[in-house]
TrEMBL record:
Broad class of enzyme this protein falls into: ligase
Site entry: Important for serine binding: 459
Gene designation per UniProt: LOC107267566
Name recorded for this polypeptide: serine--tRNA ligase
Residue ranges occupied by any Aminoacyl-transfer RNA synthetases class-II family profile domain in the UniProt entry: 358-481
Source organism of this protein record: Cephus cinctus (Wheat stem sawfly)
Length: 495
């Protein structure tokens, strides 16, 4: 029979603490987390299978699924102001019980802290046992201590197994739910209706109002069947090339570097944007791909080279030399996005394949004058593009209800559609802060380690939307802006 010393008492106390943790988890932790998580899924727009994360792989799945990266889990800052977070989620139209989520997150941190305490205790026991084993002859007291240490090691090992299992259960609920929180809102973002910043030109109404699809068919410019089957013909096809060339020229003059993005991306990057990577209404998911296992959460998505996801795929898990900042890039090409079944098709305004110009900037931090200066300069550069068209357009700040998960502020460029009798967004630029860089480990070196840069991004030009608005200004003739005509591959004026 052994006499309990202080070390053995600590081991027993830790064992009892683990039991209390498990009981507490069963009462309020796991049950609440699983219930809230289930409710979130059933409220989704499209019925999909139970959500599994490709961005965060919990410990119990690490043997079966390769973890590409481990996102920075700094949710404490988000939970510091619960009332503010609740207000932002309400403005975005997102139903999440953040009070319960915070409680579960705090409990997760508490369990994690106990796990590290047990790990530390196990290390101390191991070191002491190694020191005793090195001795050739042990005194009776040392032999007794060795036996006690073996018993303590057994207790701590069992406790670690219990606490790891509980921690993995929490990871599968609270961490994945917390990763679904959107970015913080900029104080300039209006709550419900757009704020008009400027209006250029005069809004005119044509004598005959017709849909751009009907006009395009009459003039032999557009063959439209549905959002996934649409073709530009004759001058419309040349217009597409000229518009992208004009956008590329203006962006290049602003010291932006043209890059070529990939049309495909993995689920980890899609989820890094804040999207549900398993929802076919969010992105096109490739099925029966020979390079991807059927049950793998990290699938292949068709997004297009001129998309935010494509840029993030280039910079994810990268350590950037700070002397290279700011990075200012752009690309022209395709964007692919599914057509929501709940929406009504609206011609070229809602097609799935879009020719676009996409910009992407990486700066050191968002809360500084440099970040705001680059954002305002990008707005001015994009305004130059639309000024050159000699058409009416306006610049607005989109309300919180219309923002994507990664956006804090979105400035849109809109043109008038006489047939739809509303303004159509033909381009936008958005501030994203460090939301994306923390999720996808986009870092830059500092004197003491690393930090997460801030990102500005946006689709500054959507060619099909621009084409649709221009077609509706004249029902009997397609009037191509002079600037775009100069960049068309065939001399339009001589035709």
């Amino acid at each position: 029979m052994y006499i309990l010393n202080s070390q053995y008492s600590i081991a027993i106390k830790m064992s009892n603490a683990v039991l209390r943790l498990l009981n507490k988890a069963n009462r309020i932790g796991y049950g609440a987390a699983k219930t809230c998580f289930h409710n979130d899924i059933t409220c989704a727009k499209v019925a999909v299978k139970q959500y599994s994360s490709a961005l965060f792989i919990s410990g119990d799945k690490a043997h079966d699924t390769f973890s590409v990266l481990s996102p920075c889990l700094d949710f404490d800052n988000r939970f510091d102001n619960i009332e503010g977070l609740q207000k932002e989620l309400k403005l975005r139209g997102i139903d999440i019980d953040v009070v319960e989520l915070k409680k579960t997150w705090d409990f997760y941190k508490y369990v994690d802290a106990n796990k590290w305490a047990l790990e530390h205790k196990r290390g101390e026991i191991t070191n002491r046992m190694r020191a005793l084993i090195k001795k050739k002859d042990l005194t009776p007291a040392e032999e007794q201590e060795t036996a006690k240490l073996k018993l303590e090691a057994k207790i701590v090992k069992e406790d670690l197994k219990f606490i790891r299992d509980s921690l993995w259960e929490l990871e599968n609920s609270v961490v994945i739910r917390a990763l679904r929180l959107p970015n913080e809102l900029d104080h300039r973002t209006p709550p419900s209706s757009p704020t008009v910043l400027s209006s250029v030109g005069i809004q005119t109404q044509p004598a005959t109002v017709k849909s751009h699809i009907d006009i395009g068919k009459d003039l032999g410019l557009v063959e439209y069947e549905n959002p996934t089957q649409c073709y530009l013909c004759n001058d419309a096809a040349l217009f597409e090339l000229g518009a992208l060339a004009l956008a590329g020229s203006i962006l290049s003059k602003d010291d932006m570097i043209r890059v070529a993005g990939t049309d495909f991306s993995r689920s980890v990057v899609v989820e890094g944007c804040g999207l549900n990577h398993e929802d076919p209404a969010e992105t096109f998911i490739l099925e029966n791909n020979e390079e991807i296992e059927r049950d793998s959460p990290n699938r292949l998505h068709l997004v297009g080279g001129a998309s935010l996801v494509s840029f993030l795929a280039m910079y994810a898990k990268q350590l950037i030399n700070p002397t290279h900042l700011p990075l200012k890039c752009f690309t022209t090409g395709r964007q692919y996005s599914p057509f929501p079944e709940s929406s009504l098709p609206n011609g070229l305004f809602t097609i799935c394949q879009v020719s676009a110009a996409q910009v992407f900037m990486v700066l050191k931090e968002s809360k500084c004058d440099e970040y705001e200066d680059h954002f305002q300069n990008l707005i001015k550069t994009t305004s130059k593009l639309y000024d050159s068209l000699d058409c009416h357009y306006r610049t607005v700040i989109r309300p919180a209800t219309e923002l994507r998960p990664w956006e804090t502020l979105r400035v849109s460029f809109e043109m008038w559609s006489p047939f739809a009798e509303q303004y159509i967004e033909v381009g936008h630029v958005s501030t994203c802060g460090d939301y994306l860089s923390k999720r996808l480990l986009i870092c830059y070196q500092t004197a003491t380690g690393r930090d997460f840069p801030a990102i500005i991004s946006g689709t500054v030009l959507s060619v099909p939307r621009l084409l649709g608005c221009l077609l509706e200004t004249s029902s009997d003739k397609f009037v191509i802006p002079e600037k775009i005509a100069k960049y068309m591959p065939i001399d339009y004026e001589t035709i």
